[in-house]
Amino acid sequence: MRVALFVPCYIDQFYPQVAVASLELLEKLGCEVVVPTDQTCCGQPMANSGFASSTEGCDANFSQNFEGFDYIVGPSGSCVLHVKEHHPSKKIRNSVYEICEFLMDVLKVSSLNAHFPHRVGLHQSCHGQRGLHLSSMSERNEKHFSKIEDLLALVGGIEVVLPVRVDECCGFGGTFCVTEEAVSVKMGQDRIKEHHANAVSYIVGVDTSCLMHMEGILRRQGSKVQVKHIVEILNHA
Amino acid sequence: MLSHAEASENFIADADRTDWHDETLWFVREKRDKVSKVLPEWEALREHASQIKDHTLANLGEYLQAFEAKAQANGITVHWAADAAEHNAIVHDIIAAQGSKILVKSKSMLTEECHLNDYLASKGIEVVDTDLGERIVQFRNEAPSHIVLPAIHLKKEDVGETFHQFLGTPKGNKDPQFLTEAARQHLRGHFLASEVAITGVNFAVAETGEFVVCTNEGNADMGAHLAKVHIACMGIEKIIPKRADLASFLRLLARSATGQLITTYTSHFHKPREGQEIHIMLIDNGRTRQLADPKYKNSLKCIRCAACFNTCPVYRRSGGHSYHQPVAGPIGSILAPNIDKKANVDLPFASTLCGSCSNVCPVKINIHEQLWFWRQDLMEAGLAPVGKTIGMKLMAFTLANPVIYRIGGSLLRRFAGLLNTRLNPWYKQREMPVAPQESFQEWYKKR
Q: B174: exposed, middle or buried (C-beta count within 10 Å: 0-12, 13-18, 19+)?
């Protein structure tokens, strides 16, 4: 299966290991992965700041890089949701997948050669969850499901622990993290507190942006807890 | 006036109180979860209520006129007001005709929206708020911080101090039962003496001309049943077609608001008793403007349950006053810009767009999507600070051009250390990510 790897800009620049793991994982699962080299950003930072009118350039660049593909797969619920909801091309909106969604719904992965013998806390990133329905939501009266937990269950040795507030936002929120710094940090600290109480070694999520925010707080606190994008664990032999 | 971000920073400075506020409201959210999940039909009920509201809003004029005709036939006087000023003037005329100088009022967010208390005070008329939480904040000369739990920002110690000051309770007494009894005795005198009682309206039924007022304290009933004149104030969106529709709305309201199965007092006001006058105020105050915009029309479905407040991780950690509006929280943030764009430009940005508000909304308002739309409209209206506009345009230009993006990214990584300064809001309480030697694309090129 031919897949275009969508690498969000901040992953490209600051978390290349997440893109590497995505590439390797998709290849391991038999995909022919193409990485369009002129891709930049989906435009979400501007759009969520009220400047959707300024994202034409990003949209056009995204089209040039990705329009020939039936499967555009990215390791970020938030960026994928933005493309799915706001990109002007219907073809692109219908072809973009968050990587867990792609693994479960398209590739229908039922086994993985992955091993990660650690206690990890699961962070539900809101856009992946409430936007892309990667899992059931605590507010709704619906049957429990989780594509993320299903994937992690395929990893050998892992112990997944959920916080009591299973799906509360971490407070990253794009530019919110700096424009509403006090609330943003407090929200992040509160999430981390629960994971600390659960004595986890790692916090895992489907959005590196949430993880970057929590990692910043963890490091400032001098915590030993590390963050991992889910693909880094799924690709961990 | 402080922006939401500035006011929140002050609120959070007291970390213990912030935690207490967050946990108290989270407890209400959990109660709501429990009682909503015992109803297998919960999601269908939300959908049903949402559709009734859609239908009503699509035929609002007809339902309002039908309501007016029925209410008049029942002996109720119906008044229409285009805005807050007209509303306040009419209410004042009714009170002045009675010659009252003091009156009782149960909870009505509409009168908060119209700043009725201040207006009447300027005319020499004192309003005694009879909802316990509202009375507490009224003593303190504060605004309600929550539409269902007006004094939720206060602890019992604060209430004890306030009652000591205003009701003469013993200093240091913070026993909730004792303080509530003191408030009851204090309010009883006002109930007995008032010739005019103002109430809000939760639902007005077009089919019958009746209106329904829900309280947990019975204070609306105490006021309305003892006074010679009952003035009920409602926004025009409170109308529902049929009495049978209450079967859906009352269940949703109580469960969503406080996790109760039913509100303690659900009172139907049909017609005046002998010798009594009932006046209904029907107010627009920007609602028809909201109705005319397909992006925001949906916000008029709101039944003021405040479930979106209780679930909102930002509200729980910033408090209602940080929203500087009578209706705070996520719903307030999509209603307020319709009244005044400039004064409320910060509110649609006081959200991470996590979407929890839309999920708890009993009438399925797409709150987080409307927050996003307001962000666009406010920025397009030129209300962004100059720095933000320049920054956004520069960012859009950089990110639209792969070559410039690559150069910019490389410079950013090389000089990331320069961002480790207190001037960088990120760095204030968080470390910056460690910049790698190579970007993914640089690595990929060599692969």
A: middle
